[in-house]
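Q: How do we represent a protein-ligand complex in a form that can be generated token by token?
A: Start from the inputs.
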Amino acid sequence: LRGNYDYDLVVIGGGSGGLACAKEAVAHGARVACLDFVKPTPTGTKWGVGGTCVNVGCIPKKLMHQASLLGESVHEAAAYGWNVEDKIKPDWSKLVTSVQNHIKSVNWVTRVDMRDKKVEYINGLGSFVDSHTLSAKLKSGDRTITSQTFVIAVGGRPRYPNIPGAVEYGITSDDIFSLDREPGKTLVVGAGYIGLECAGFLKGLGYEPTVMVRSIVLRGFDQQMAGLVAASMEERGIPFLRKTVPLSVEKQADGRLLVKYENTETGEVDSDVFDTVLWAIGRKGLVDDLNLQNAGVLSQKDKIPVDSEETTNVPHIYAVGDIIYGKPELTPVAVLAGRLLARRLYADSTLRMDYADVATTVFTPLEYACVGLSEEDAVKTYGAEEIEVFHGYYKPTEFFIPQKSVRYCYVKAVAQRTGDQLVYGLHYLGPVAGEVIQGFAAALKSGLTIPTLMNTVGIHPTTAEEFTRLSITKRSGLDPTPAS
Ligand code: FAD
Ligand code: NA7
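Then emit the structure tokens for the protein with flavin-adenine dinucleotide bound:
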């Protein structure tokens, strides 16, 4: 034991980052406790250990996305010669049960794994008493815990807008994956990736989502790609209410929800009735319960700033994952940062987390994946004259028989214009986008150049091979649409 503390390390938050850090620290000989506590949502939804990704994030989202893609595939199957019975329809309650059963099995495995790996799991809400002491609020009362080192990995929760009826009648991504009724006609407020993904799978499952967009779609992503993602969703019959903000939500006598909203450009106020209103307007870091001031830890806009070694302003208190300020909010980012931190703390490693060029996917019906710079960020960084954008539309072979729309299947590479022609960013809109971009992410991190990309032999017939066939530059003005 280092110093006179109960633990070498206490990790606050048993999600992606916290668990990875705790397990790695134990593997290197540290004595570790990990606290995890979930406050129920306003509608009473709660869940087990493992954090956002497992319970109300990546995993249930991917499963519902898959359910929605399967529905699409069944419809396509007829064109491929399958005798498909007339009408197929989803059973929401069966889907929710399957998804929740999977989550419960992951919760169980997580607890067993913690026990096997000798991470002490404390199901309590942590708040600092001083910089080496934590108070954990447990079901059985409060417990005081001391530790030499702390890692804050508390993540975030969805925000609610400050309008009448928002909290009483609206739900968020924290509720949708366990909703005990069909969502029906749903207003999705927010056009970040969570809003678009939820609207996408709801449409695929046969419900009627509408997306309300305050300003732009997919802020932070390449805006040409964002435009194509939105257009591909509109083509599938998802309406986008643009430049619109919600004003109020009221419950009607029939139980449905009357939403009043305003067009911010024209000032026009309108309303519509929905079965479900889902807020996807961003997430708030969970700093409030931590009593950070007792430990002297500074926060910034409900996030915690850290240096390149994930250290807060207090040298023995670190933070990883969604709670840190200004870094990508993604599970693999939290996991790797947590693991590397534990190795630096307990295994003499000096390796730091590299937050640059992190690949990501938006699981909309037509998926979008990217790695590296957006076109606008490349222009901002290097200047429009110094970059070359290679692009092209393409037609996935498997889309022909069911006559699926290929209008928005598109790839582009943003690269250095001269010299080595280093690739700065890759963008892909089409099927299985995450699977396509993951390997290219490793290539980009290894210094991929346009000549290397062009000299890579494609795998035919795939959609990933389109990256090896990019010959048209935007600057040339040539039509990037394939002839056949
Ligand atoms: P979390 O996983 O949120 O874990 C923090 C834990 O700490 C929680 O259990 C919380 O309840 C607990 N806690 C908070 N305060 C305290 C306290 N004071 N005491 C004790 N415990 C506390 N990422 C991807 O990479 N791919 C995706 O496809 C993807 N899809 C997503 C879809 C949705 C709908 C959402 C919401 C997120 C998605 N994410 C995705 C993001 C991903 O879930 C997060 O980046 C990741 O979970 C962050 O991990 P974390 O360890 O920082 O926090
Ligand atoms: P994001 O990516 O922060 O997107 C939130 C969306 O909600 C975005 O389109 C916002 O529009 C919109 N928004 C925000 N506040 C409001 C209000 N008050 N009314 C209407 N619309 C609003 O959040 P996500 O939930 O998709 O993702 C959460 C995080 O996970 C995100 O930070 C990623 O980094 C990872 P805006 O563009 O601000 O006008």
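Residues 210 and 239 are 5 Å apart (CA to CA). Residues 12-18, 35-38, 51-53, 56-58, 61, 125-126, 153-155, 173, 194, 286, 289-290, 321-323, 329-332, 334 surround flavin-adenine dinucleotide (ligand 1) (CB under 6 Å).
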